[in-house]
Design brief:
The protein is an alpha+beta fold and about 90 residues long. The chain has one domain (about 15-80). Helices cover about 30% and strands about 25% of the residues. The chain contains three helices and three strands. It has helices at about 35-45, 50-55, 70-80; strands spanning about 15-20, 25-30, 60-65. It has a three-stranded antiparallel beta sheet. β1 and β2 form a beta hairpin. It starts with 14 loop residues before the first strand and ends in an 8-residue tail after the last helix.
């Protein structure tokens, strides 16, 4: 069972933006309407998938909203924050 979201209420039209991580802190940001199912899928992922390859099995953050468009916007914003920054020589 999930440790971070032990008391997630199941509601219709509820969307979750979530972050999965591994020990070296590789991050995966996603959006779903069923957080428990999606985390379970990540934990059972094949080695060929991103989450399986990097063993992203720890749910480290989530937030809920009833607006799917807001959830997708937050997912994209969090993905930009989680992306490695390139060193730029100006």
């Amino acid at each position: 069972m999930l440790s971070v979201e032990r008391s997630i209420p199941a509601r219709m039209n509820q969307y979750y933006v979530y972050v999965m991580a591994n020990i070296p802190r590789t991050l995966y940001v996603g959006v779903t309407n069923d957080l428990e199912r999606r985390v379970s899928e990540h934990r059972q992922a094949s080695a060929a998938s991103f989450t399986g390859r990097y063993r992203l099995h720890r749910l480290v953050y989530y937030e809920a909203t009833e607006d799917v468009n807001a959830a997708i916007a937050r997912e994209k914003a969090n993905q930009r924050l989680a992306a490695p920054q390139e060193d730029r020589a100006d």
